[in-house]
Prior knowledge:
Layout: E1 21-22, E2 28-32, E3 42-43, E4 50-51, E5 56-59, E6 68-69, E7 74-83, E8 89-97, H1 115-125, H2 137-140, E9 149-154, H3 163-170, H4 172-186, E10 190-196, H5 200-209, E11 216-221, H6 230-238, E12 253-257, H7 258-270, E13 276-282, E14 290-295, H8 300-306, E15 316-319, E16 326-327, E17 341-345, H9 361-365, H10 372-380, H11 384-389, H12 400-404, H13 411-424
Parallel strand pairs: 1-14, 9-10, 9-12, 10-11, 13-17
Antiparallel strand pairs: 2-8, 3-5, 4-7, 5-6, 7-8, 13-14, 15-16, 15-17
Helix pairs in contact: 3-5, 4-7, 10-13
The structure holds iron/sulfur cluster (2 copies).
Amino acid sequence: xxxxxxxxxxxxxxxxxxxxxxxxxxxxxxxxxxxxxxxxxxxxxxxxxxxxxxxxxxxxxxxxxxxxxxxxxxxxxxxxxxxxxxxxxxxxxxxxxxxxxxxxxxxxxxxxxxxxxxxxxxxxxxxxxxxxxxxxxxxxxxxxxxxxxxxxxxxxxxxxxxxxxxxxxxxxxxxxxxxxxxxxxxxxxxxxxxxxxxxxxxxxxxxxxxxxxxxxxxxxxxxxxxxxxxxxxxxxxxxxxxxxxxxxxxxxxxxxxxxxxxxxxxxxxxxxxxxxxxxxxxxxxxxxxxxxxxxxxxxxxxxxxxxxxxxxxxxxxxxxxxxxxxxxxxxxxxxxxxxxxxxxxxxxxxxxxxxxxxxxxxxxxxxxxxxxxxxxxxxxxxxxxxxxxxxxxxxxxxxxxxxxxxxxxxxxxxxxxxxxxxxxx
Length: 425
Ligand code: SF4
Ligand code: SF4
């Protein structure tokens, strides 16, 4: 089958051999009520209330949302307005830890003998897509259409990040158990685990773990960015094309991040909701690149201190990978459910932008065969009709076009603004 275009990047997977280290609980956590796509939660606790690990502290009546739970035991010391990395505001709950990490007394493995019980439990778990998008898992696992293929996104194609790779090496039993559970309750006949072939240990471990199961196939993929983008992964594995305006389920496919799958199985065994986050800390300002596990809401500054960050040298702080991650304006933001990495980099030279020389490289490299340069021009004119005819809404903001542009045109930044512009109208 023909594979979609993309680019080859230096992988810099410096932490592939670094097992997760669980850091001591912080003195305080700040937990935003919006760490997912959809409706933010409302705080479900009061000031000075005592809470335990796993107790629900934020919820919403809206279906398209995900509950939020205390990540440390202690006292609620503030309920505050919180400015997120994208500049918008939500409520946040600050908990001062008692250092005991006492689990909530009512937690137990949830009942799970019917599809309804399974979905209700997933909803109570607070699970969201841990690959970075934060799509509520109970919504994704409740499609209208019959699903033929479960695809596990284990590509992890961004440079530096190894948290999914480590999860595959350390939690293979949970991943395969979770796949079987999802296939059983959603009546899905076949599963593919898509892994880039630069992760040989993960491929070997998962292959051994799933070898007696004919319905699960590990698919090694070339390490070409953006292999892990949902539409790219679906096409490269099944040949199916998710059309403009469609969801993967419209093509009979569900794509789940591999770390989300590992979390779900642990939750079904213990009843502990999503209260911690495993992430990669790397970049050339980091003295000790590592993979760590911390309570959600831990200050990024504390995590960077553990990784021996040279704070004075940091010119660029990124939540996620260098291609699609978000710039972080402060070291004092909290680790959220969707943080799979924090990168601290010493250089942020503004590129000199020149006029487009019509070389066509951006068009050649786009996995979806879009016209990045025409899209940039249409947005400059605020020409909505033209943006629609150029299929702007298909753009995945992968950044391949910006990466190859010899004129350093800020194409992906323009596409991001153009997508917001189209939603506003
Ligand atoms: S950012 Fe959009 S236009 Fe640019 S290569 Fe990616 S999908 Fe194509
Ligand atoms: S890669 Fe840059 S210079 Fe070349 S056509 Fe695209 S926008 Fe123009």
